[in-house]
Amino acid sequence: xxxxxxxxxxxxxxxxxxxxxxxxxxxxxxxxxxxxxxxxxxxxxxxxxxxxxxxxxxxxxxxxxxxxxxxxxxxxxxxxxxxxxxxxxxxxxxxxxxxxxxxxxxxxx
Length: 109
Hints:
By secondary structure, the protein is an alpha/beta fold. It has helices at residues 14-19, 35-50, 65-70, 97-108, and strands spanning 6-8, 25-30, 55-60, 78-83, 86-92. It has 4 helices and 5 strands, in the order βαβαβαββα.
């Protein structure tokens, strides 16, 4: 299902893999029962593959409620773009790939 390009972020590795990352990081907060989350999964895969210098990963909010709670995730899918450990951009719901790519371009510039 998921490719090696998309990482799995958890309550345990979130700080080290996302907040302490030197580069831009795209985090997809999702759950297996969420239809729109499954709908955007191929787009997340594409973004990961097309942006090899950017860390792209997913947080299953059912398995990792701590991270979701810390960032106030109340609706999914929620996509957060981190830069230097801070949220640089956030998207709630299904968004066009171009909008996400633009946010990644800005965050990684």
